[in-house]
Amino acid sequence: MTVYFIGGSPCSGKSTVAQVLSDQYHLRYFKVDDHLEKYMQMAAAAGKKCCKAVEQMTPEQNWMRKPEKQCEEELKIYEEIFPYILADLEKTECEHGILTEGAAYLPSLMKACAIPVNRYLSITPTKEFQVSHYRQREWVPYVLEGCSDKEKAFENWMERDALFAKAVQQQCLHLGYSSLINNGTMPVEDMMAHIATHFHLQL
């Protein structure tokens, strides 16, 4: 079965384009974030170091750390849960294929699985675009509930994601995978057309 992978970082437009393209080309949409908590619990139960550590942290302990440490840990978490994602993908069926997206699809993990360059691309936002959109999301305060300095925690979170985006971009460049950087000016229709062409999708 053909599987198309969209990686990248949060708040880049991955979910929006993946959902629409899946509907348009009759693909099964598999969103990693819908299963993320389950995967992290499975990894923690299996003794995976980073997932186990994060599971035990309070919001204060998590978000008040240095962004560099948070980013390093985020990359490791995706490595730890990746086998569980692959296991679920192998059990997912669709006549026309699967389109799956999530920050967990690091270029390095794609390369390790020999995913062809025309079956993967990443989408990352500029930091300005990322921050402006997170500011509009009503659930953000709930994520930071329990932090003594919510604004500082938010700044750490945004810097972590910016560092993560940079890491993904560098991996793509090094490994030869396609990378889109969304600064908010590209219409969603143009982004979808670019991705459809990259994946050679046909109706």
Account of the 3D structure:
By secondary structure, the protein is an alpha/beta fold. It is 56% helix and 12% strand. Strands 2-3-1-4-5 form a five-stranded parallel β-sheet, sandwiched between helices. The longest helix has 26 residues, at 150-175. The two termini are 17 Å apart.
Strand order of the largest sheet: 2-3-1-4-5
Q: How many beta strands in the DSSP annotation?
A: 5
Total helices: the number is 10
Q: Note the beta-strand portion.
A: 5-15%
What percent of residues adopt helix (DSSP H or I)?
Answer: 55-70%
- Element order: H for helix, E for strand: EHEHHHHEHEHHHEH
Shape: globular
Rg, please? 17 Å
Q: Uncertain spans, ≥5 residues at pLDDT below 50?
A: none
Structural class call reads: alpha/beta
Question: What's the topology here?
Answer:
Blueprint: E1 3-8, H1 14-24, E2 28-31, H2 36-45, H3 49-55, H4 59-63, H5 67-91, E3 98-101, H6 107-112, E4 120-125, H7 127-134, H8 140-143, H9 150-175, E5 178-182, H10 188-199
Parallel strand pairs: 1-3, 1-4, 2-3, 4-5
Helix pairs in contact: 1-10, 2-3, 2-5, 5-9
